[in-house]
Amino acid sequence: MNKALILIGSPRKKGNSAFLTTSLANKLKGKVEIETAFLYGFNIEPCIDCRACKNGEMKCVLNDGMIELYEKIDASDTIIFASPIYWFGPTAQTKLLLDRFRPYFVNKKLNGKKAALILPAGSGAGDCDLTIEMFKRSFQALDVEFVGVVSSESYNVGDAENDLKAMDMIQKLSEKILSYSTKDSV
Ligand SMILES: Cc1cc2nc3c(=O)[nH]c(=O)nc-3n(C[C@H](O)[C@H](O)[C@H](O)COP(=O)(O)O)c2cc1C
pTM of this prediction? Predict the structure, then answer.
């Protein structure tokens, strides 16, 4: 069974990112193996640009929560980044994670994997553009195929539930993920 890893970059365990990712997971249940990780529950040290990952085993030498996250990422077919927009960008914890993708730029282990974005923002899609572009270019550099984005105009806990446009985007994203995840298992 194909595996999707949901990486939640919000500190709110019951916030809009959590609601939107749960909705997506419910639509994939039984057909795609889902694992969810709350990034704020992991100690992710900043990349220190030591460049150790450029040689030898092409692995990160830092000993922190990324060891577990690298394992989860390596084992997944689709990576779903769910981050609230903080100042037109992803949250700091999400950016810490992305910076630690440096080994993947060299070892090309993500080649063939797919990725999607779920981005709640108080002002909605208009404030997500820079984050979408940043992720798209990073995915390109990492040879990861971008399969879709859900933006949601939501500020308070519970707002995403009432955002019908976002729920429609979740439906479309689930269909896209199912279209390639279930193809080989017939
Ligand atoms: C520090 C901070 C910065 C924020 N910056 C923006 C912003 O630039 N644009 C925006 O639309 N919303 C902004 N927001 C609002 C959040 O994106 C919004 O509340 C979101 O729904 C939170 O998602 P969550 O419930 O998953 O944590 C900001 C919130 C915080 C705490």
Answer: 0.97
